[in-house]
Design a protein that fits this description.
Elements lengths: L2 E4 L5 H12 L3 E6 L3 H13 L4 E5 L8 H14 L5 E6 L14 H22 L3 E10 L12 H21 L5 E7 L10 H4 L1 H9 L9 H13 L9 E4 L6
Parallel strand pairs: 1-2, 1-4, 2-3, 4-5, 5-6, 6-7
Helix pairs in contact: 1-2, 1-8, 4-5
Length: 249
């Protein structure tokens, strides 16, 4: 039996990934920032698929809490019948929409803490809990490849995560740990206020510049991450997998 930790697993793409992995027989630990009820609802959905699950609070913007979180996670793994993590999905994140000229230092620092610093230092802290031969998936964005006004700070963090992924792959390779990065395109979730999902003009624009002719669905990403984690493809590491339906191709 295998087990995955998914940060930001109470909603959106994290929730969808948890459900896809559960259907493959993978036990789940997910983190949530503030909405415990939503997290517990996902736990119930995961358990209904016949696997074990738990939800733990974690604010990924506060790196000083990662040591205590690792201790709690170790205890939770034992409670669920595991001694190590098989999979780590660094998914938690928020976005901002502000032009380059108007982005504040506070907004920029928030993006650093939530995306880049969290992926770096949470993974570092959890290394003793990840089994040799395990797999890590980091989360980037199609915005690291193409540019849309208003996402300079957010996309800069994702570009950093893509570089970090290659370095993690190189340095964790001796332990047989593969590290790859998934870059979603525009997906219909509540992310960023739900604009892609709820604004017909935005949704139509996305469809018009996407080879597959539509905006993405959470299932598109959850299925891709699950395939990357569960397929017999551990020889693939340090790679960027964009799941955008061919946006701006």
């Amino acid at each position: 039996m295998t087990i995955a930790l998914i940060t930001g697993g109470s909603r959106g793409l994290g929730r969808n990934t948890a459900l896809h992995l559960a259907r493959k027989g993978v036990d789940i630990v997910l983190t949530y920032n503030s909405n415990r009820a939503a997290a517990e609802a996902v736990v119930a959905e995961v358990q209904a698929a016949g696997v074990k699950a738990a939800a733990l609070p974690l604010d990924v913007s506060k790196a000083g809490t990662f040591a205590a979180f690792a201790e709690t996670l170790a205890s939770t793994l034992k409670t669920l019948g595991h001694d190590r993590l098989d999979f780590l999905v660094n998914n938690a994140g928020t976005g901002i929409h502000a032009s380059f000229a108007e982005t504040t230092e506070e907004q920029f620092d928030q993006m650093v803490d939530i995306h880049l610093k969290a992926t770096f230092f949470l993974t570092q802290r959890l290394l003793p809990l990840i089994r040799d031969g395990g797999r890590i998936v980091n989360t980037s964005s199609g915005l690291a490849r193409f540019s849309l006004p208003g996402y300079a700070a957010y996309a800069t963090m994702k570009g950093g995560i893509e570089t970090l992924t290659r370095y993690m792959a190189r340095e964790l390779g001796p332990r047989g740990i593969s590290v790859n990065v998934v870059a979603p395109g525009a997906i219909e979730t509540d992310f960023g206020g739900g604009g892609v999902r709820d604004n017909p003009q935005v949704n139509g624009f996305i469809a018009s510049v996407t080879a597959m002719g539509r905006a993405g669905q959470p299932d598109d990403i959850g299925a891709a991450v699950t395939a990357l984690l569960t397929a017999e493809a551990n020889w693939m590491t340090g790679q960027r997998l964009e799941v955008s339906g061919g946006m701006f191709q």
